[in-house]
Amino acid sequence: MSDIIKLLPDAVANQIAAGEVIQRPASAVKELLENAIDAGSTDIKLIVKDAGRTLIQVIDNGCGMSETDARMCFERHATSKITNADDLFKILTMGFRGEAMASIASVAQVELRTRRHDDAMGTLLVIEGFEFKY
Ligand SMILES: Nc1ncnc2c1ncn2[C@@H]1O[C@H](COP(=O)(O)OP(=O)(O)OP(=O)(O)O)[C@@H](O)[C@H]1O
Ligand SMILES: [Mg+2]
Fold first, then answer.
1. Which CATH number is 79's domain given?
2. What's the rounded Cα separation, in Å, for the pair 46 and 60?
3. Domain membership flag for residue 112
4. Tens digits of residue pLDDT in 95-129
5. Which of 26, 74, 93, 131 is 20–30 Å from 107 (CA)?
6. Which domain, by its residues, includes 93?
7. Residue 111 Cα, ligand 1 centroid: separation in angstroms?
8. What whole-number distance in Å separates Cα of residue 62 and Cα of residue 116?
9. Would the pTM count as exceeding 0.85?
10. Does the beta carbon of 106 lie inside 6 Å of ligand 1?
């Protein structure tokens, strides 16, 4: 009998992993609001259409991201919140796994607009089907 076990393609593995984080639209809302809070926001706006199936929009006035960080935040295990195993014992943020944005991007069409307070220009990213459209 031949061997039957094979490694799943990254795209499939990512979607399975995403299912652990984003089970329904409410999970995406929770993750995005947690990110806004972790970014030090004092003003957070949430817009939801069709119970989150058509649109989930979160607008915050937190620290924002550089263009490089904005692209990086959609990688799995990419986080600004911890750097080593010791940090796991002193977590002060709502998130730390670096999974949420990657998970959301693997199950949704995503548009990200961000600007750090001191930057003159911001960044716009659009992701569809695991790919940056621009
Ligand atoms: N609204 C935001 N404002 C500023 N930076 C953000 C925002 N949302 C995400 N980020 C940045 O993107 C990174 C990745 O976000 P993501 O939610 O995927 O991971 P996390 O919050 O670090 O951990 P977790 O997966 O547990 O939520 C964050 O660590 C943060 O640096
Ligand atoms: Mg998060």
1. 3.30.565.10
2. 9
3. yes
4. 999 999 999 998 899 999 999 999 999 999 999 87
5. 93
6. 10-132
7. 15
8. 8
9. yes
10. no
